[in-house]
Design brief:
It is built from 5 helices and 8 strands, in the order βββααβααββββα. By secondary structure, the protein is α+β, with helices and mostly antiparallel strands. A hairpin with a 5-residue loop joins β2 and β3. α1 packs across α4 and α2 crosses α5. It is elongated. The relative contact order is 0.18.
Length: 159
């Protein structure tokens, strides 16, 4: 029922992990790839390092069910990683701290409800001007729940 890929992996944001360096003057530098280097204050770094909040099991079950039924679209469904910010267009307007937080936490599950899709799409994908983010622990739970729904659907179809 869902257009979920056979193998689920995080989309690589960069071939390297972000490097965080204390500059010794109350500022920190994050380097992520050869062209992305930004400096932040200590307070900004504290916010960037703060993990994304966890959702309740009930919320995660709803997300897995909604994903299964195609009422949400998530970043793991994108097969062209270079267009993720065109699909979740609001991400283009995120500041450096927003992008640093995504990179530091290696976020793999960004989603939105299809009812919020814009009238146009790109390369067969929907486009959104809003989005929600799951931390990776919650993302793994949703992926597992979704896999169980797919398995159950396959078992029912074979009967």
């Amino acid at each position: 029922m869902s257009n979920w890929p056979d193998e689920v992996e995080a989309l690589p944001a960069s071939p390297t992990s972000p490097e965080l360096t204390d500059n010794g003057d109350g500022t920190w530098t994050i380097k992520h790839g050869p062209d992305w280097v930004h400096t932040f204050t200590t307070d900004e770094i504290k916010e960037i390092l703060e993990p994304y909040p966890s959702q309740s099991d009930e919320q995660l079950r709803k997300l897995a069910n909604d994903l299964f039924h195609g009422t949400i679209f998530c970043s793991l469904q994108i097969r062209e990683p270079n267009i993720a910010t065109m699909i979740f267009a609001v991400a283009m307007f995120g500041d450096d701290a927003f992008h640093a937080k995504l990179a530091i936490h290696k976020i793999k599950f960004i989603y939105e409800y299809m009812s919020k899709a814009m009238p146009r799409g790109i390369n067969g994908y929907p486009m959104f001007m809003s989005m929600a983010i799951l931390n990776n622990e919650d993302a793994d739970k949703v992926i597992e729940m979704h896999s169980e729904l797919l398995k159950r659907e396959g078992e029912e179809a074979s009967q």
